[in-house]
Design a protein that fits this description.
about 500 residues; alpha/beta; Rossmann fold; 2 domains; 6-stranded parallel beta sheet; 15 helices; 27 strands; about 30% helix; catalytic activity; CobQ_N; cobalamin biosynthesis; GATase_3; ABC-type vitamin B12 transporter activity
Length: about 500
């Protein structure tokens, strides 16, 4: 008998990733050898495992929750959208090719076979595998090619629990409708419900839960998870800083003016989780924006990664954000580019093999760093380490673009260019391809101090602030506590097969 569970959701962002992480952490604390799994992830937020494989950030954090080493089998298929109709495919941690929207019917068979084999491999090495679905299992228009929701459940014999977000409203109808629209064979896989993000009087909800159970053939509600304000998980969505961007993250023993960070919301942003660690730092206020005025007024402006650098650069220009970035740099106000954002700061961006663009093209960059970017066919993956001003930095890199120094023009107006991690700093402009650098506490606080010296000299990092890794661990434990305290864990174990 397969020992495992598929956590599906009534919608995207219903809380599947959080519930999966919580169950994983709870089982690990119970002494169970557990592993996370997501057959297919569509996200530009990814991570490099110790063996060099690229997987979704959510599965990487879920592996941490399990206390196991992240690996390619935990997210065998990763789709990285480059446009609304074109996705780069990562298969078992390595580049596989691209699929257009019209190619899904023929392209999915090979991906499905690889995903099922990866699940079976994980199951052979662990007591339990907790799988996370994608979107909703009720997307019957996609059912024939599905291998991440009910297609997976039926292929490997997994029971399915469906999570619903009550904070959005209509959760009972969403549960009932999810079951009702499915074919009988798929309905048989649905075993239970979990209500997520609840706040209010549980007594008012209880009668509805009992009626839901009656009207769905006795399928039980395993529990009601409360709205956890200070719990987050590396997002699959375009750019969501989650709870860390809340106002009370800017705290101190004495009230003070926060250091303001503006993160430009690029249409094809990737690895937006780079700014999570900035957003949790006490005394720092992060705003995700497309407003040139906010970009101009911030103490630090961040251009994050992009899965479509040339396209997002054109979008930047169409919104007047390019002028805001260039003008603040010329005024000596700090600008940081990370990966795709770093590439935008170059003098020229060249894509000869149409790696990220629909056709081969060369476009001018913002000209803030003396570099020229050329996209190579091969993707560079790695987990580099280095130092900056005496601070040790560990990071990861995922990119096709290769930056090379160019000769500075004779009319150079900026300060001398110096190395910065694997990139460059010129005056108030920094650029690097390293993701995750701000998760290093010493580097993060040292860099913010340098920024503050240029814009807000009185600002200082708050002494005694918690380490980023400690806060992530505490979050995972809070999720496990929520599972233990608010779900019927006896029924959950029986469902899993323990």
């Amino acid at each position: 008998m397969t020992r495992g569970l598929l956590v599906a959701g009534t919608t995207s962002d219903a809380g599947k990733s959080l519930v999966t992480a919580g169950i994983c952490r709870w089982l690990a604390r119970e002494g169970v050898r557990v592993a996370p799994f997501k057959a297919q992830n569509m996200s530009n937020n990814s991570m490099v495992c110790p063996d060099g494989a690229e997987i979704g950030r959510a599965q990487w954090v879920q592996a941490l929750a399990c206390g196991v080493t992240p690996e390619a089998a935990m997210n065998p298929v990763l789709l990285k959208p480059g446009s609304d109709r074109r996705s780069h495919v990562v298969l078992l941690g390595q580049p596989w090719g691209e699929l257009q929207a019209g190619e899904w019917a023929t392209g999915r068979r090979a991906l499905a076979d690889a995903a099922f084999e990866a699940y079976r491999d994980l199951a052979s090495r662990h007591d339990v595998v907790i799988a996370e679905g994608a979107g909703s299992p009720a997307e019957i228009n996609l059912r024939s090619g599905d291998y991440v929701n009910l297609g997976l459940a039926r292929a490997v014999g997994l029971p399915v629990v469906v999570v619903g977000d009550i904070d959005r409203g209509g959760v009972l109808a969403a549960f009932y409708g999810t079951l009702g629209i499915l074919d009988p064979e798929d309905q048989a896989c649905i075993k239970a419900w979990i209500v997520n993000k609840f706040r209010g009087d549980l007594g008012l909800l209880e009668p509805g839960l009992r009626m839901l159970e009656e009207r769905t053939g006795g399928r039980p509600v395993l529990g009601v998870v409360p709205y956890l304000r200070d719990v987050w998980l590396d997002s699959e969505d375009a750019l969501a800083i989650s709870g860390w961007s809340r106002a009370d993250a800017v705290s101190s023993a004495e009230p003070r003016e926060p250091l303001r960070v503006a993160v430009i919301r690029l249409p094809r942003v990737s690895n937006a989780t780079d700014v999570d660690a900035l957003a949790i730092e006490p005394g720092v206020q992060v705003e995700v924006t497309t407003d040139p005025a906010v970009v101009a007024a911030a103490d630090l402006t961040v251009l994050p990664g992009s899965r479509a650098t040339q396209s997002d650069l054109a979008w930047l220009r169409s919104r007047g954000l390019d002028r805001a970035v260039v003008e603040r740099a010329r005024a000596g106000r700090p600008v940081l580019g990370i990966c795709g954002g770093y590439q935008m700061l170059a003098e020229q961006v060249h894509d000869p093999y149409a790696v990220e663009s629909p056709a081969a093209a060369t476009v001018p960059g913002l000209g803030l760093l003396p570099t020229r970017v050329t996209f190579a066919r091969e993707k560079r993956l790695g987990t580099p380490t280095g130092q900056w001003h005496g601070h040790r930095v560990t990071a990861y890199l995922i990119h096709h673009g290769v930056s090379e120094r160019t000769d500075a023009p004779a009319s150079e107006r900026y300060a001398q260019t110096v190395p910065f991690l694997d990139g460059w700093q010129r005056g108030s402009v920094w650029g690097t391809t390293w993701h995750g650098a701000f998760e290093n506490d010493g580097f993060r606080r040292g860099f913010l101090q340098v920024v503050a010296e240029r814009t807000r000299p009185a600002w200082r990092p708050e002494p005694g602030a918690s380490a980023f890794a400690e806060q992530r661990t505490a979050m995972l434990d809070r999720l496990a506590d929520a599972v233990a305290d608010h779900l019927d864990t006896r029924a959950l174990k029986e469902l899993i097969g323990l």
